[in-house]
Each structure stands twice: as structure tokens, then as C-alpha cells.
UniProtKB/TrEMBL annotation:
Keyword Secreted: no
Function as written in the Swiss-Prot or TrEMBL entry: Ferredoxins are iron-sulfur proteins that transfer electrons in a wide variety of metabolic reactions.
GO MF term set: electron transfer activity; iron ion binding; iron-sulfur cluster binding
InterPro entries, per database record: 3Fe4S_ferredoxin, Fe-S_cluster_ET
Designated name of the protein: Ferredoxin
Short name of one Pfam family: Fer4_15
PANTHER family referenced in this protein's UniProt entry, alphabetically: FERREDOXIN
């Protein structure tokens, strides 16, 4: 996949704008809710785990939070540039 934000760390953590976004691959079950909500940010890899796309910066940050909230296993962790939790709180 050549469309990843960080090919060495496909599920993050990656920096987008003033946020750090990370998908916990141990928690991710490949439900794909995140992709339905934030298709510019997330995609499933060949292991059916969410990875972060290089178009993440084009996604509205509220949409990314909605995608994290939509994850049935809360596998998406977002922190701000001060290390404060954006989601989950």
C-alpha cells in the first residue's frame, strides 16, 4: 500500500494537523465502521486491520472523532499536541 501516512507504522501513531492518531491493532476487529465514516482517513489492510491513509489531513477532524466513536471496540485513540486525550475521554 503506497497510500499510507506512515508505511513503517500503517496503523499509527501518525500526526495529522495537531493530533496524534493511532489504531490499536490488537483491539481492531475490522468492522470497517471507521472507513464508512472517515474514508479519507481509514482503510483496512490485508489483515483486516484499520490503517491510516496519507489523505488523513484532508478529513475534517470532527469526522475523525465520529469515526473513533463509531468503532465498536474503541480501537482508535486520538490525542492532541499536549498529549491530552481527544478520544476516548
Amino acid at each position: 500500500m503506497d497510500n499510507l501516512k506512515d508505511p513503517a507504522n500503517p496503523s499509527g501513531p501518525v500526526i495529522s494537523k495537531n493530533w496524534k492518531i493511532h489504531v490499536d491493532r490488537d483491539l481492531c476487529i475490522g468492522a470497517a465502521t471507521c472507513i464508512a465514516i472517515a474514508p479519507k482517513t481509514f482503510l483496512l489492510d490485508s489483515d483486516a486491520k484499520a490503517v491510516i491513509l496519507n489523505t488523513v489531513d484532508d478529513e475534517d477532524q470532527n469526522t475523525i472523532v465520529d469515526a473513533a466513536k463509531g468503532c465498536p471496540v474503541a480501537a482508535i485513540i486520538i490525542t492532541d499536541d499536549k498529549g491530552e486525550m481527544v478520544f476516548p475521554k
